[in-house]
Every structure is written in C-alpha cells, then in structure tokens.
Amino acid sequence: MTENNHIAERLEKVVSINLHIVWLTKNRKNILVGDVSRKTREIIRQMCERKSVVIKQGVISKDHVRLFVSLPSKICVDNFVQQLKGKTSHVLMTSFEYLRQQFWRQQIWAQGYFCYSTGDVSDSDIQGYIDSHAPEPEQAPEEAVAE
To answer: pLDDT, tens digit, for every residue of 94-146?
Structure first.
C-alpha cells in the first residue's frame, strides 16, 4: 500500500476509494464544541483505525462533521457512516448529561449524510479512455454497456 494515495493492492484488484463525507447535528445545533468535539474526534479516530480507514483530513465544526477518508474495498459506505453516527451518538449521550436533556431518543445527528467520491481522474478522462477502447467498425461487434 502506498501512503500517498492509499491504493490497496490485493490479489487481482487495485482499489482507491477516497470519499468526502459530511453529516449534521439534528436541527444544526451547535453542540460539537469543547469536550464534546474532542470526544467525537476520539471516537471517529478509533473506529477508522479499527476498520483500516485512513483519515486524510477532517474537521469537526460546531454543527457538523466533515471527513476526507480512504476506505478499503470491503467496507460499505452507508454502513460505515451509520456506524460512525450511531457509535458517536451513543457515547456522547452516555458521557454528557446535558446532551440527553437536549436530544431525546438518542438522535444527536440529523438523518442522512453527504458523500462524494474523489480521485485523480475526471469523468471526461474515464469516458475518453472507454471511448478509446471501442471496437473499430471492421472488428467483431461489441455491445456498449451504457447508451
């Protein structure tokens, strides 16, 4: 594995999954400050380390968490984010009494999240690469996967 790009090479696959992930506090409440922010950071770091997720960059703002991570191919993005949100919510609610009073039903986070995949190759580069491998008219016909 290379540390710069975190490209994992195993058997016959080469994988690089870099994601920008953002999730918000419920009702955009400004609760991620001081000890709550530090505890959130600690939990996220522990979970990422346990799952071999590399945190390239991250910020915990007053009302949201923003991460730039590199995931192993075996991890489902949706499950990963839900686990992060669930674990941080549970630990924060048990650690800070005032959060239990502000939030009921252990829902510190708003529903959903934002996720965008990143990479060194643009969509147009990939489309050009696929187009360059299209069969010549005289060759045996191949079916296009997408029209």
So the answer is: 999 999 888 877 689 999 999 999 877 777 887 787 778 666 655 545 554 45
Superfamily classification of domain 8-132: Transposase IS200-like (3.30.70.1290)
Gap between the terminal Cα atoms of the chain: 36
Say how far apart CA 22 and CA 3 lie, in whole Å.
23
Q: Domain residue spans in the chain?
A: 8-132
Report pLDDT digits (tens) over 67-98.
999 999 999 999 999 999 999 999 999 999 99
Strands laid side by side in the 54-60 sheet: 54-60, 64-71, 17-24, 114-118
CB atoms within 10 A of CB 80: 20
